[in-house]
Amino acid sequence: MTKQASPLATILRPLHPRDPDEHHRVATPLELLFDLVSVIAIASAAAGLHHAIAENHAAQGVMTFIMAFFAIWWAWMNFTWFSSAYDNDDVVYRLLTMVLMGGSLTIAAGIPALFTEAPDFTLVIYGYAVMRIAMIILWLRAAYHDPRCRPTALGYAIGIFLVQLLWLSFLFLQPLTFGVSYILWAFAVVLELAVPAVAERLTANTPWHRHHIVERYGLLNIIVLGETLLAGSIALRQFAGEFNLMLVHTALSALVIVFSLWWVYFAREEQLDSHHLRRSLLWGYGHFFIFTSGAAVGAGFAVLVDIITHHSEVSILVGDYAVAIPVAIYLASLWFVRDRYVCIGPARFTLAVFAVLTLVAPAIGLGLEGIAATTALGVIVRNLFAGRAYLAPPTSHPDH
What we know:
mainly alpha, disordered C terminus, globular, 13 helices, single chain
């Protein structure tokens, strides 16, 4: 007879490290649910950016969007790398992950209050604090059960706790002017980014699974690009009762752009070709700009719909650049974290060149169709060059 596991073993198992070379490691249903919750917060931040640009408050809206998106992305990223190394799927682990989700939903609820004349950080900070406290508990569990990486796990727990004290100071200093908010936020972000860089050097790196991490990032990118598809569907819905050629162009351009961004991200080249700490941090951190710009593209399409349907007073050029700038950042960021490492020859620089050309398209009167055409052409040219070349060996770059 097969020996049945005790109920206690199901509820609370040792949080031993996972095998970083485990075969067929894929995202779990719990991780997919976590992503689904994250997209709610991302959608809230993108909606705030859309309305800020449409109401001619682009500068303030962009800064607020970046602040909100960082909270969502950083909490998501910390959990993703932790779960890649220590997911034991016991009841306690599942409950703590659901606490993280509750914090993410709280952040989503508080984001609209940030896009106001007197921004209120209360709900966002509370939601972020909930997520970070759950992460501290997870890291303390890992420290207890993994002696080899105990200094690193404790470094994460202590670092997260100390930085969280700074975030909580926002509550006591409100109301804050935007200038002071930006300074405090930037300081706290630098400290947040420093925690993994310091903690991972205290002992051997945590045993994260490279293919699992790449899959997790790819799944979130699909969700983010889905926000752009949603903006295109809004354009289609607007002219359902009355034909409008400009909205047709907007919807078709949205499809071309999002399909191109998906295509170039999921190219055949390796996303992360090394376990080296510096390379991993650059790739992981650099994705902030990929995810942020991907969500901002959707906001840009929503702005264009408002302009075309006379719900915004900003010019069509502003709407075009609300799309062109994030598309250019997306391409440039993908070049920065991947192509300059894994491609050789012309393919190594193609995305950087077309990022610049994307910004030129609206300036020379090509409009949204020009942005879409430039993006699609960039993907085609890049893949043609990459297909004729070969991947650079992983050991050829000094970061490896």
